[in-house]
Fold this protein.
Amino acid sequence: MFVPPDALDAVRDALFAAGAGRIGAYERCSWYAEGTGTFLGGDDASPAVGRRGVEERVLEIRLETVFPADRHDAVVGALRAAHPYEEPAFDVYELVT
């Protein structure tokens, strides 16, 4: 997922509270790195950053973590509730061991 830097801790806390970030005997496991996100809000958009009709380039953090499949709905719900963007961008991949 992609998160503005000032929302990183709140989003991480929400994900961890919903059951994400556990690997063996470790908790609050995540990985993140800085990058540039781009987007262009359409006429019906209400962007948290920038303006409709203007392509924006913003500093974002790519945040990754893990969670068990049975926590999917809770984790995605926590992400959507804690994330400041109108449409947060995120991927969910199934890990096969």
User: Anything to note?
Assistant: The longest helix spans residues 72-82. The mean pLDDT is 94.
